[in-house]
Amino acid sequence: MISLLKNDASLSAELKHIAEKVYNGTRISNEDGEYLFNHASLSYLGSLANFVREKKNGDNTFFNRNFHIEPTNICLYTCSFCSYSRLIKKRSEGWEYTMEDIMDIVKSYDGKPVTEVHIVGGVLPQYDVTFYANLFKNIKKHRPELHIKALTPVEYHYIFKKDKISYEEGMKIMKEAGLDSMPGGGAEIFHPEIRDKIAGGKCSGDQWLRIHEIWHEMGNRSNATMLYGHIESYFHRIDHLDKLRDLQDKTGGFQTFIPLKFRNQDNQMSYLSETTHVEDLRNYAISRIYLDNFDHIKAYWPMIGREMAQLSLSFGVDDIDGTIDDTTKIYSMAGSEEQNPALSTEELVTMIRRVGRKPIERDTLYNVIEDYTDVVFEDDQLYKGYISLPVV
């Protein structure tokens, strides 16, 4: 591949040099990252990103069986990109689950082979340290083996500040209550030039990173995200990735990076156009190339749709999240491709196999539960709406 690139007269010297770095396992710089955004073709990026993806994970493509609980969509904060939350004065338009409501949702999955519950939602005073600590304890008492992946630094920052405790003390309480890992939400864009405009009032980028750092120092894992495709520039995207890469160098606690596409339905930024599918694939690819110390890049299929999730598997992505089971409204309310996000295990496996990848069911920590590569279902033609490529 390197020899082909060196002889490709259409590539600039800079692109050839970056490709050589990637194939030699040398870290690219921030300047390289911005250059890729500004000058690299989709095919070039796909080639490099796929090389990194296959070097790290081969054809393995991961998913898990999970369900989401969103305790409330009422929120004290007014992020301009958010279509999900409702202000307190518009409580009638939202929901606020009680402890009993949430446990009823958990119990509705009794007997089903789910391995993870993902809990995030709006920020309200009644959802405090005591509430969440008791919730985690109740879930573990009811179903000890269920992995609790819960709350973002936005929520933790608020509840710890409200209770006048340090991040360190707060995260210790959460871990002792049963928290197993943290999702990656609330990162948005770290740079204050953008963050203050789209998410002013909630935790800063540095505070988001610090809470994850503390969690990692306690021996635990978490994910990371970036909300892209709004008012940020390529500089801001690379700055965001750089901060994540730096923290990963320090702690090694991040498992997965998930680029989150800005959706423009029913929010304060609806005047903005959404990114094209080509730009989405470019962003996945550059994220895979830049984040050399992250093991996994995830495409959140309810947000981008099934066919785009399949295409992303050739642009650095090796994880398409989980079964979801129609329990998340965060992206469907913003105009995502999937308005009723639910897929069976058979459907996820079919999606992955039809583009020549190996479907691997994982737990939250990427331990392999089952390799579905050679599993035969009763009717492999049941599931429509996917692209299908020849397996070679």
Description:
By secondary structure, the protein is α/β, with parallel strands linked by helices. It has one domain (57-371): Aldolase class I (TIM Barrel, Alpha-Beta Barrel), CATH 3.20.20.70. The protein has 15 helices and 11 strands. It has helices spanning 2-6, 13-23, 30-39, 42-57, 99-107, 129-142, 153-162, 167-177, 192-198, 205-217, 234-251, 277-290, 301-304, 306-312, 345-353, and strands at 60-64, 66-69, 116-119, 147-150, 181-182, 221-228, 254-261, 296-297, 319-322, 358-362, 368-371. It has a 4-stranded mixed β-sheet, covered by helices on one side. The protein has a 4-stranded parallel β-sheet with strand order 5-6-7-8. A 3-stranded parallel β-sheet has the order 2-3-4, covered by helices on one side. Strand 3 (116-119), helix 6 (129-142) and strand 4 form a beta-alpha-beta unit. Helix 3 runs antiparallel to helix 11 (234-251), helix 4 (42-57) crosses helix 12 (277-290) and helix 5 (99-107) packs parallel to helix 6 (129-142). Mean pLDDT is 88; it is low at 326-339 and 381-386.
